[in-house]
Amino acid sequence: MDPLQPRVAIVGSGLIGCSWAMVFASGGFQVKLYDIVQEQVTKALENISKQMKELEKTGMLKGSLKADQQLSLITGCTDLKEAVEGTIHIQECTPENLELKKKIFGQLDLIVSNDVVLSSSTSCLLPTKLFTGLKHVKQCIVAHPVNPPYYVPLVELVPHPETDPSILEKTYALMKKIGQSPVKLTKEIDGFALNRLHENKEGIISATDLDLVMSDGLGMRYAFIGPLETMHLNAEGMLNYCDRYREGMIRVLKSFGTIPDFSGEIEQKINQVCVHIGIL
Looking at the keywords, is NAD present (predicted)? Predict the structure, then answer.
């Protein structure tokens, strides 16, 4: 590996972790794929190799590098300190369990530098639940992808109240560089934007970015598969999906509040955006 190439670390080598590793490698980044069990790391690297070679055969490989070149950028390890050494960005991809993720970020907090971005792929855990109390909280952000990130480019960027604005901008630029479609949320909210698509009365996300949530996110996925098949494929079957995400789904549904009246200031703002981009 070239020591001058930028490095990123992926913490967790499941479906999301593998997909993120492929996305970063397609952008020319060195990738350290970390997991606690060597067998899991080996299996993940084998799956990535198989996928990339198949993608190259079908002409669907992302990036300008050949499959073998991209694969040479991805290595695995079971030592967290080794994984994050010299990285500019850490993407956590462990299971959707608050205590597990807090444990991981607690460990990272002790070993990372003061300029690396600490990012979580969580789909519904709030940044205040994940990052509050960390020494490096200003460097923390949620970068929630749509599964699988390799095929669906949308990434929701959700800052902690103490996140330095430069971290949001740095993460936004990085996601654009590797071919993703990032959208910025001004503050955290249950379900982020993706899981509460219709509600923007609090100014959580711009109207332009809200459209991207559908056009570069949900719309791309739902053009091929429906919500129930998505849930089944997002975990080890539907029962496992409900077990993983039940608590978060219930919390999000309860937070929707009153039905907006689709009038007033928000109506005018959305109309202005539509006029600006030529919809009206």
Answer: yes
End-to-end Cα distance, the chain: 51
Q: Of the candidates 13, 8, 51, which has an alpha carbon nearest to the alpha carbon of residue 29?
A: 8
Tell me the C-alpha distance between 232 and 32, whole Å: 29
The total of other beta-carbon atoms located within 10 Å of residue 88's CB is 15
d(CA 110, CA 107): 6
**DSSP single-letter state for residue 205:** B
Contact, 103 vs 119, CB < 8 A?
A: no
Q: What would the pLDDT profile of 215-233 be if each residue is shown by its tens digit?
A: 777 776 777 777 777 777 7
Q: What is d(CA 119, CA 181) in angstroms, rounded to the nearest whole number?
A: 16
Q: For residue 69, what are the contacts with CB-CB under 8 A and spacing of at least 6?
A: none
DSSP string, 176-196: HHTT-EEEEBSS--TTTTGGG
Separation of alpha carbons 117 and 84, rounded Å? 11
Provide the sign of the torsion angle of the four alpha carbons 140, 137, 93, 215, taken in this order: negative
Give dist(CA 178, CA 26) in Å, integer: 7
